[in-house]
Amino acid sequence: MTKQGPPQVGNNLDPWYDHYSERAGGLRASEVRALFAVASRPEVVSLAGGMPFVSALPQDLVINAMDRVMVEQGATALQYGSGQGVPLLREQILEVMALEGIQANADDVVVTTGSQHALELVSKLFLDPGDVVLSEGPSYVTALVIFKSYQAEVEHVPMDEHGLIPQALREHIARLKAAGKTMKFLYTIPSFHNPAGVTLSWERRLEILEIARSNNILVLEDNPYGLLYFDHPAPDAMRSVERDGVIYLGTFSKTLAPGFRVGWALAPHAIREKLVLANEAAVLSPSSFTQLVISQYLATADWKGQINTFRGVYEERKNAMLSALGEHLPGLSWTNPNGGFYVWLTLPEQLDSKAMLPRAVKELVAYTPGTAFFADGDGRQNMRLSFCYPTPENIRVGVRRLATVIRGELDLLDTFAGTGIRSTADTSRRFGAPPPDIS
Ligand SMILES: Cc1ncc(COP(=O)(O)O)c(C=O)c1O
Where is the chain membrane-spanning (predicted)? Predict the structure, then answer.
């Protein structure tokens, strides 16, 4: 018998390095995370994060709800609960979804620890290594992280200002079918998209549902921002017209507060059963305490009025961002969201948003580079600007600083034009015409 050497013991940084599952390889910190630590310094205007402005929520509304829960149902609130969620809250969630045209049964609602956890559970139920998830390009960064962690391949389908392009979806599906790929679901954020800020038109919602139906592909409709519209509501949810082929995800994170960590999935009946089992396996039950507080809040506070307040706050901030962009970066293109938190900006083609970020942070402004929102490294010419958290005044300051950085970059390129150091910067094309779509 040959003598065995000592077992492999990882590496210097992590002695357990070689113990991890293959799946864990998909869990990567964002490349720009370290910079964001710097960007959270108070002197930096961050247009990077997606934090709701919870200070617009009067604290006494929450304190009253918490008090009543503890006085009236303290023992239940502090106990484990059902893996599916508090029954009364599930009924109340039906009222919330009815605002976007959804008729459903509380029995098909599963309360989760934020909609992020619902994304995780759906992925766990459906994705095997090598499966394909179709998604808009760009798409929500932390959904992409989950899909990758289940070793799925993400296929981005382009959008324009009306959202996902149905013809492009058809073409991608045909190509993937021809390549023998298994497509499990289409992940979509139809209303006030993160990060693109666009909204899928009603006609396209119907067309995309038809494409999914005829190709036997589930639709995973993620809708955290739908109620946060500005001028007019978004079209009704896709789930409002398709019961069997859609898993719908909702959350209280943006219309109330993310600290509660309460979201939900509304699923076709058979899937709902599996989701409850997966939820129990993961967390036993979602927090009884926060579910009851939200239930109390919905029963006693003017929650629709509060959502109107949030809409007003975000609309004012969006207007501040768009007018500052118009003033300081004329000629660049960006989306004009009618709700939600985000603007998607397109840079002149010779600029790289990821390479430029350290210089921006040095100028005391932060954004999220477009590359974060693609699974395939695309998006260098784009950035996401969030208007949800900074005040309108800070947004104006941030955009002014950003313009300084962009001009500085272009000047640098001009200086080195023709030296071969980087692509030739042609001043006549500076802030040139936008490309036709935002993919
Ligand atoms: C598109 C999208 N889906 C899901 C989430 C997760 O939200 P939650 O706080 O409900 O987990 C977010 C949060 O930013 C989001 O933007």
Answer: none
